[in-house]
Amino acid sequence: MKLSEIYNRLNTLSAFELQESWDNSGLQIGSYDDEVSDIIISLDLDEDLIAKAKEGTLFITHHPLIFGKLTDLNFDAYPANMIKKLMEKHLKLISMHTNFDQTHLNAYVAEHILGLRLENHENYIATAKVDMPLDAMIARVKDALTLDQVKVVRAAEHIKTVALCTGSGASMIGTFDADLFLTGDIKYHDAMTAKSLGLSLIDIGHFESEHFFSEILAKELKDWEISVIISNSKNPFEIA
Questions:
Q1: Where are the alpha helices (DSSP H) in 145-237?
Q2: Would you state the pLDDT for residue 41?
Q3: Are 23 and 97 in contact (CB under 8 A)?
């Protein structure tokens, strides 16, 4: 299958034009004329995935490898070191980031992972009505995401409305109405802001809330006449 056909199918599934202006989703490495026989889906790329991939494989990742301004190709530094290894093995790369957040990822995690019944899903914020103690929601999040511990900002003991944004969504605090916000990468001043607004927070982790990207996309591609496998990158963090 030509890479151009794969790109067009992915664009139909989750339009690349939906991505934010600062994002870099789409074709990152490769040519639209390239032939592809194998696809590997992963949240990110790492050296182990590249080393194990068959020559000519297409990676589809959530996070773009080339993200910020690329001013040089110093092969001793990231991301140029990864780009070099991809090109040496004729590997290709497409990323589906903020477009996929909007069309699939946030709603999927809310409904299928956390078991919430969505009331609204607009842009990056999925909201649901609930009626439970905050501690019960904390327990549900830990169980569903396999987290031993979570950071919590406790503004109220009972929750009626939950908002969710996978990955790093703390910049959206104050833009929606909810009793509880679930997102990752929550910083100290995010917590202070939320507390002042009467908004409880649970930090659901960046990797922990987004690694479902691979299983979602694999389900969407299951009927394609091409080999598609999930081979997720490893979480760069560990609890010591």
A1: 188-197, 206-210, 213-220
A2: 97
A3: yes
DSSP characters for 106-154?
HHHIIIIIS---EEEEETTEEEEEEEEEHHHHHHHHHHHTT-S---EE-
> What is the rounded CA–CA span in Å between residue 113 and residue 46?
26
pLDDT digits (tens, 9 = 90+) for 161-183: 999 999 999 999 999 999 999 99
Q: Is 165 left (phi over 0), alpha (psi -120 to 50) or beta?
A: beta
Average of per-residue pLDDT across 131-138: 98
In whole angstroms, give the CA distance from residue 156 to residue 110: 21
CB burial class (10 A; 0-12, 13-18, 19+) of residue 88? exposed
Which is nearest to 102 in space by CA: 124, 135, 127? 124
Q: Rounded to an integer, what distance in angstroms lies between the CA atom of residue 152 and that of residue 186?
A: 10
